[in-house]
Amino acid sequence: MPTLAQLLTPLAATEGYNPTPIEGVGVYRSNETTGREPLCYSQGIIIMAQGTKRVFLDNQVYEYNPDNYLVLTLPTPADCEAITPPDGPLLSLVMDLDLSALHELVRIFDECRQTGGANAPSLNAHTLYVAPATRAFNASVVRLAEALNDPLAAKALGPGLKKELLLHALRGPNGASLVDLVRHNTQLSRLEPVLKHVHAHFSEPLDVEQLAALANMSPATFHRNFRQVAAQSPIQYIKRIRLTRARELLSDQGVKVSQAASLVGYESASQFSREFKRFYGQPPQAVTMALQTTA
After folding, report:
1. What is the pLDDT of residues 181-195, one digit of tens each?
2. What does the pLDDT average to over 86-94?
3. pLDDT tens digits, residue range 238-286?
4. How many CA atoms lie within 13 A of 168 on its CB side?
């Protein structure tokens, strides 16, 4: 039987994220080890087939590899480093969270009065967490990867295979955090649309009081809940997303510093440069110079 890495290799033709025939599922490939750097994660489940990644958030380190998987209940800006194995590229399967499927599964859990991770009390809302990959979980991942290589199976079985994988995550440790996304009036369910709004509109003016209203919270309650869930204040969160996106524009697309500043929502290029240097330890011009040197 082929390994998960062998199944994903033909699907990862290029470095970075590769879409697949199943909507919301992709394969990520990295050919080289990368040091710690800021990254914006989307909601989803990441299963490592080959290699190791570490996520740094709120003075904690979350390491995931082929023995476990990473769950992101909310969009999360964090630091990340990737360790590529000596015998091949880093490969991972990335599945977006399907909230409609999550709603349906939680309803079924309630009907069956299921016990376990999903029904355990959610004492702390987890923005991200690492869970062990059980034999049943890995078997589901392999079936999904096999379907990705078969267009007919992908179309016919894809939604069910995604739901099966989500079921395993719900029944695993911290599955209650996934339930909180679709429960009424929880921290995660109230903040989830706010964080999605921020990620979709980070280049526009964002008023914290308006964001609090979107969460149906007072500004003070919003600040407190936001910091508990995101491990940073709303202003810090917005700034981190803008600067991370700006660095991607500078390094990946080679845009000018003033243009990058404008594209991520800064009215002042000088303020952008100051905050970029404070965040990254180097001015934005250093990123563009490095790109020109390697070109």
Report:
1. 998 888 899 999 999
2. 94
3. 999 999 999 989 988 878 999 999 999 999 999 999 999 999 888 998 8
4. 22
Q: State the pairing for strand pair 44-50/52-57.
A: unpaired
Q: What is the rounded CA–CA span in Å between residue 37 and residue 40?
A: 10
H/E/C letters for each residue in the chain? CCCHHHHHHHHCCCCEEEECCCCCEEEEEECCCEEEEEEEECCEEEEEEECEEEEEECCEEEEECCCEEEEECCCEEEEEEEECCCCCCEEEEEECCCHHHHHHHHHHHHHHCCCCCCCCCCCCCCCEEEEECCHHHHHHHHHHHHHHCCHHHHHHHHHHHHHHHHHHHHHCCCHHHHHHHHCCCCHHHHHHHHHHHHHHCCCCCCCHHHHHHHCCCCHHHHHHHHHHHHCCCHHHHHHHHHHHHHHHHHHHHCCCHHHHHHHCCCCCHHHHHHHHHHHHCCCHHHHHHHHHHHC
**pLDDT, tens digit, 9 for 90 and up, residues 6-22:** 999 999 999 999 999 99
Locus of tokens 């999904």 = 144
Distance of CA 210 to the CA centre of its chain: 25
* Distance of alpha carbon 295 from the chain centroid: 30
Nearest to 179 by CA among 124, 113, 105, 231: 105
Nearest to 219 by CA among 242, 194, 241: 194
Query: By percentage, how much of the chain surpasses pLDDT 70?
Result: 93
Q: Which amino acid is at 173?
A: P
The pTM score is 0.89
Closest CA to 246 of 289, 203, 199, 293: 203
